[in-house]
Design brief:
This protein is of the alpha/beta class. It is built from 10 helices and 15 strands. Strands 3, 4, 5, 6, 7, 14 and 15 form a 7-stranded mixed sheet that branches. A 6-stranded parallel sheet has the order 10-9-8-11-12-13, with helices on both faces. Strand 1 and strand 2 form a beta hairpin. Helix 3 packs across helix 4. The chain is globular and about 55 Å long. Bound molecules: NADP nicotinamide-adenine-dinucleotide phosphate. The site of NADP nicotinamide-adenine-dinucleotide phosphate has 27 residues, from helix 1 and helix 3.
Length: about 350
């Protein structure tokens, strides 16, 4: 079968190679991958800056791809409730390949409302943001939610999920005025422009607010839950806008891996700072999160129409270009590779 792999060198490359199809264990399902979603972690892995270690990565580390959607070809002898022909999606290692073998407890059904391109871009963001909101932050519907990097591949699902879970106030940040409208369409009730270089927009003052920093524009007591995809100075700034007993879930560190935090504010407001990652999660933890998400899925996807924004769809043979698109500043939503 064809599979995408990272070949080392200067620079490294993504190369389509022929490899043996995976063996299927008793509790696994063999999936014919239609489409795979690319993620920032794919770029980090390629640079050697990310080593996956969770139980949903069961292939060699040079394989590419964390999520896919496709059709069940065969099921192991210990699998019940899933049959060949069904459409499924999952976060699973080496997803950019014609076939993947996935633990059946890590699969999610693809509803009729979603095509396979959209489904391929959903599992990682959905698991990340659903886990962050419900498990890490223990979200309540009356919470006000702040999402940093809200237009990103992960954050724009967080915006939709928060609304789907009943939240009335969802504040999203972006450095790009152009993305403010989309964020509002996705459900953000307020958009904060965090780029101090951006000029005010007198013709469209509602488009995005342009602060010196997040706390200056939001003021104190502005959010109860934050999904922070940026870290660094953004995380440091937002503490001053947190409500007493706010929960900040630290998900990504695109703005920096170190932050200079005002611990007086952290302590005085009894703020909880909670880190999360899939790395190191064992099979039981992943299965439990997937099972809870699977149960909530009809409400989230069918009733509330949570879906990824698709930035671009490219053929597997164009993986190199897809990687460049994933890394460009104007990216909105997901880059998808067509596999079969
Ligand atoms: N913990 C977990 O389990 C988990 C799971 C999945 C992903 N992640 C991580 O979460 C983060 C977000 O992933 P993603 O796929 O959404 O990434 P993404 O699409 O590449 O970027 C998210 C957004 O962040 C903003 N941004 C990027 N660099 C920035 C900077 N230096 N300063 C301020 N804003 C910046 C950009 O928005 P604007 O251009 O609109 O400002 C970008 O669209 C990544 O670090 C990823 O590795 C973590």
């Amino acid at each position: 079968m064809r599979a995408l792999r990272t070949t080392t060198g200067t620079p490294s490359a993504w190369t389509v190679t022929e490899i043996a199809p995976p063996a299927v264990a008793g509790d696994q399902v063999l999936v014919e991958v239609a489409d795979a979603g690319l993620n920032r972690a794919d770029l980090l892995m390629r640079e050697g800056a990310y080593v996956p270690s969770s139980a949903d990565w069961n292939v060699a580390p040079d394989r590419v791809g964390f999520e896919m959607a496709g059709r069940v070809r065969a099921v192991g002898d210990r699998v019940t409730g899933i049959a060949p022909g069904q459409y499924v999606m999952a976060q699973t290692g080496g997803a950019c390949a014609e076939l993947v073998a996935v633990d059946h407890r890590l699969l999610l059904p693809v509803p009729d409302s979603l095509d396979l391109v959209a489904a391929a871009g959903l599992p990682s963001a959905l698991l990340t943001e659903y886990g962050a909101l419900t498990e890490a932050a223990r979200l309540r519907p009356d919470d006000r939610v702040l999402i940093t990097g809200g237009a990103g591949g992960v954050g724009h699902i967080g915006v939709q999920l928060a609304r789907a879970l009943g939240v009335h106030t969802v504040i999203a940040t972006t450095r790009s005025r152009d993305k403010a409208g989309l964020l509002r369409e996705l459900g953000a009730t307020r958009v904060v422009d965090t780029d101090p270089e951006n000029p005010e927009d007198p013709e469209n003052p509602e488009n995005a607010e342009n602060p010196e920093d997040i706390a200056t524009v939001l003021g104190p007591d502005a959010f109860d839950v934050c999904l922070d995809h940026l870290g660094g100075p953004v995380l440091a700034d937002l503490l001053a806008a947190a409500a007493p007993r706010a929960r900040i879930v630290q998900i990504g560190r695109l703005a920096g891996t170190h932050a200079h935090l005002d611990l007086e504010t952290l302590a005085a407001r009894r703020i909880q700072l909670i880190g999360t990652t899939f790395r190191g999660r064992d099979a039981g933890e992943l299965r439990a999160l997937t099972a809870r998400l699977r149960e909530a899925l009809p409400g989230l996807l069918r009733t509330h129409d949570v879906r990824p924004v698709i930035d671009s769809v490219l053929d597997l043979s164009e993986a190199e270009r897809a990687g460049q698109l994933l890394d460009r500043p104007g990216l909105i939503g997901k880059v998808i590779l067509r596999i079969t």
